[in-house]
Amino acid sequence: MNAPDRFELFVLPDGAKKVTMVRDTKIPNASMFTILKEDHTIGNLIRMQLIADQDIIFAGYRMPHPLEHNVNIRIQTNNNTTPLESIQKSMECLSREFTSLENSFIEQVQKKRNVADQYI
Amino acid sequence: MSQSVTQLTRQPELEILEIKNDSIIFILSNTDISVANALRRVMIAEVPTMCIDLVEFESNNSVLCDEFIAHRLGLIPLVSDSVDKFCYTRDCSCSDRCDQCSVELKLNVKCTENRPRDVTSSDLLSQNNSVIPVSSQAASSNNEQEIPIVKLRKGQELRLRAIAKKGVGKEHAKWSPSCVATYQFQPIIVLNQNRIDELTDQQKEEWVGSCPTKVYSYNPHQSTQQVTIEDPLRCVYCLECKKKADSFGKPDLVHLEQKQDKFIFTVESSGALKPEDIVLYAIQIIKRKLTDIQGQMAEGML
Fold first, then answer.
1. Interatomic CA distance for residues B280 and B38, integer angstroms
2. Alpha-carbon distance B31 to nearest alpha carbon in chain A (angstroms)
3. What is the DSSP letter of B68?
4. Which of A33, A109, B9, B163 could form a cystine bridge with A93, CB 3.0-4.6 A?
């Protein structure tokens, strides 16, 4: 009846921006990023990568409501950098990490395939 | 001084222990638990496959109602190795559905004999040879693999058109390619042989038997008479062995620990995709998500 469409979970509505940034008005060097149609998979991944950065004072993520498929990532940095710079840096790190993961997985599967008897 | 991207990027290591037709076991190390969890979540919910999504009944006088049969049809795994060639119906340029975004399967069975007729997944005839029920695949076509749909009595008939579409497990679990996708920490179990030697044979047997998943083994008839660790991966950290050791008054008999930076993944496929493909697609999907967000960030900020 009034059930939301099943694809609302992952399809970005027309004209909506995937990522938006809102600066914190009270705290310097702090921003809230909202990523639409993402969940803990990406939220937690980015947060853990942000925390590894020494210039980050605070990084956290939340899903504001279980029926709204968005994540908020809040970042506060020291004066060496800005939240936008630091999140871009973290995303670059993650991209590289998954690229190397992909390459090593393909390589390993190839290796395993060559040993025919183990491939049952 | 800020850390550079190279400094912050981890170099994950991967080792495949075993690949079978329907399962893969590998160890992921030198990375964060959030990476392991993202990989697991994507393997379950975001790797696309093909599944029956719409069913049009032409005739059904079996004992099961239309909805019931439609649901059962949806849960039948279809071979999805060519899923990349299809697009999602919502993204497709066609108005309703077309060959680019769907596959039609037909089922037409009438029971004319006196004994009941089993309608199974192998009665589903696909119009596309690359998208067929997993049980109809040449290599594995034997009766045991067929999935029963309904039983028909004499005179009963089931005639329908089923439309398979591309989708992801987030939308409905039937699209999930993995039956099992889990990771566990590597267990480190250290036995204190000096303490074990202090036990009587009966106590040894009792202690080995205290483990519900049979991590340890002990054979009193063996000349060495030693308690050994048979398979540490079976350990579920129930600590029953620890409790048993305490009851013998020997709390330092065994030491249990989890190595929290080594993840042992077990992925089982439903048959829709090859297990190694599930993992590979999952990695690629996360990568695509990240670059997508990165691109949007560079573009539309401020």
1. 13
2. 9
3. H
4. B9
Q: How many C-beta neighbours within 10 Å does residue A119 have?
A: 13
- Assigned CATH topology for domain A6-118: Gyrase A; domain 2 (3.30.1360)
pTM listed for this prediction: 0.90
Taking residues A5-32, report their average pLDDT: 91
Distance from CA of A50 to the nearest CA of B (A): 10
Largest distance between two CA atoms of chain B: 84
Q: What are the Cα distances from residue B123, in Å, to B64, B105, B154, B203?
A: 17, 10, 17, 58
Residues near B15 by beta carbon (within 8 Å), at least 6 away in sequence:
A108, B26, B27, B29
Query: Residue A32 class from Cβ within 10 Å (0-12 exposed, 13-18 middle, 19+ buried)?
Result: middle
Residues 9..48 of B with a Cβ closer than 8 Å to A: which?
Answer: 9-16, 18-21, 26, 28, 31-35, 37-38, 41-42, 46
Let me know the angle formed at the C-alpha of A101 by A95 and A106, rounded to the nearest 5 degrees: 130
> Residue ranges of the domains in chain A?
6-118
Q: Do A95 and B21 touch (CB under 8 A)?
A: no
Chain-chain contact of B300 with A19 (C-beta, under 8 angstroms): yes
B156 token code pair: 């009963």
| pLDDT value at A49 more than 60 | yes
List, in order, residues 6 or more apart from A64 with CB less than 8 Å away. Answer: A70, A72
CB contact under 8 A, B90 and A38: no
pLDDT tens for B36-73 read 999 999 999 999 999 999 999 999 999 999 999 999 99
> Which residues in chain A are closer than 8 Å to B9, comparing Cβ atoms?
93, 96-97
pLDDT tens readout for residues B76-122 = 999 999 999 999 998 899 988 899 999 999 999 999 999 999 999 99
**CA-CA distances (angstroms) from residue A87 to B5, B7, B131, B292?**
11, 15, 41, 14
Q: What domains are defined for chain B? A: 5-45+181-266 (3.30.1360.10), 49-174 (2.170.120.12)
B296 CB neighbour count, 10 Å cutoff: 17
Residue in B19, B77, B20, B45 with CA at minimum distance from that of residue B272 = B77
Assembly ipTM = 0.93
